[in-house]
Automatic annotation (TrEMBL):
Protein name, as recorded: DnaJ domain-containing protein
GO cellular component, one term: cytosol
Transmembrane segments: none
Acidic residues bias spans: 76-86
Domain J per the UniProt entry, residue ranges: 103-187
CDD domains: DnaJ, zuotin_NTD
Species per Swiss-Prot/TrEMBL record: Lentinula raphanica
Length: 398
């Protein structure tokens, strides 16, 4: 058995002195509930009634749902319900050279979403279209066959990839933020809907006016459509018949000062390819710049006219004016009432002028009387001085 060697303490060793320091008393500190354990506890308590069985059942249900979504997609991604719209013969016959005239949302099967389509939805829709229309995977029974045994089964129809080029162009534009913004500014559906917007002649005096329900049904979708172009978000909407005065005033103040990011570069005239003439390029660029400015000015005027028309037909404006008139009259009545609360009849302007004239006449008469009294006092003093002098002269003569 091993032994432990210890050194013997020297005879000069003394015990250390005990300090007078005292141990601090206990203090209370607040612990903040944070972390994954708290989140799990809250989820278990709030969503599952503190039942582990319900929590496990929920996790199993989510797992099964995820498996179903993965199995429904060939590449394991959720397709988000995009890219499956029917393709018309006109759509499939698009010419890639006329790419500026294409409806890119229809090409990718996103017509029901359009500018609301997210980047993930565009990505998935493009993948599905590529898998369906890629020239290497597309099988055509009418493809011309080569007589050579080396090229047997190879599709020699060079026009089969036309729609695939349209798909690639659509993906290029819609995934580029600046190009997509330019395209959304002149979207086919947007331009068509703007042509159907009401004008002042639509609601002329000779025609039947709009009811409250028809007014909001007509103009609410228009301002929701135009709100996408606002630099300031969120955008106040038209509201309803019960909207407050502050909401109505805020709405028209915002739209009369609307700051739009809408641009019209997409409609620029293309510079001829292969042209080396710098003068032609400068002329085309200058003309495009002028046209963009003109279209922007027309768009601002169009929106201003739309707001003016909405204001002139808004049924809430009449109600607000009536409320303001009643408030002014109540304030005026309260101002003219005495402190006791009794209501006194208001004097007319003619009565006030008559009282003023009477007061002026009384003041003039008082001044005239004072002047006469002063003259009489002066005359009496003069007579008194004369009498005194006469008395003095009489005494001297005697």
């Amino acid at each position: 058995m091993a032994t432990i060697q210890t050194n013997v303490l020297p005879k000069s060793y003394t015990l250390p002195s005990i300090s007078n320091a005292s141990i601090a008393g206990p203090s209370t500190r607040r612990l903040l509930p944070v972390g994954r354990a708290l989140v799990s506890h809250l989820r278990l308590t709030i969503h599952h009634g503190h039942s582990f069985e319900a929590h496990d059942a929920h996790l199993e249900k989510e797992r099964q749902k995820l498996e179903e979504l993965q199995n429904s997609s060939g590449n394991g991604d959720d397709d988000l319900g995009v890219g499956d719209e029917p393709e018309s013969a006109e759509l499939l016959a698009l010419d890639p050279k006329e790419w500026k005239k294409h409806d890119y949302y229809a090409v990718l099967g996103l017509s029901h979403l359009r500018y609301k389509a997210t980047a993930e939805q565009i990505k998935i829709a493009h993948r599905k279209k590529v898998l369906k229309h890629h020239p290497d995977k597309k099988v055509t029974s009418t493809a011309p066959q080569s007589t050579s045994s080396l090229l047997s089964g190879v599709n020699l129809n060079t026009n089969d990839d036309a729609f695939f080029k349209c798909i690639s162009k659509a993906h290029e534009v819609l995934t580029h933020p600046e190009k997509r913004r330019q395209y959304d500014s002149v979207d086919h559906e947007l331009m068509d809907s703007q042509e159907d917007d009401p004008t002042p002649t639509t609601f002329s005096k000779s025609k039947k006016g709009l009811t409250d329900q028809e007014f909001f049904k007509t103009f609410n979708p228009i301002f929701e459509r135009e709100s996408r172009f606002s630099r300031k978000q969120p955008v106040p909407m038209l509201g309803d018949i019960d909207s407050s005065k502050e909401h109505v005033e805020g709405f028209y103040d915002f739209w009369y000062n609307f700051d739009s990011w809408r641009s019209f570069e997409w409609l620029d005239k293309e510079i001829n390819e292969g042209s080396d003439n710098r003068d032609d390029k400068r002329y085309t660029e200058k003309k495009n710049k002028t046209e963009r400015a003109r279209r922007k000015k027309e768009d601002i005027a169009r929106l201003r006219q739309l707001v003016d028309l909405t204001l002139s037909l808004d049924p809430r404006i009449k109600r607000i004016k009536q409320q303001e008139k009643e408030a002014r009259e109540a304030k005026k009545a309260a101002k003219s009432a005495p402190a006791s609360g009794a209501v006194t009849p208001q004097k007319s302007k003619a009565q006030e002028e008559a009282e003023k004239a009477k007061k002026e006449e009384e003041e003039k008469a008082a001044k005239a009387d004072a002047k006469k009294a002063k003259a009489a006092a002066a005359n009496a003093a003069k007579k008194a001085r004369r009498a005194a002098r006469a008395a003095e002269e009489g005494g001297a003569a005697s």
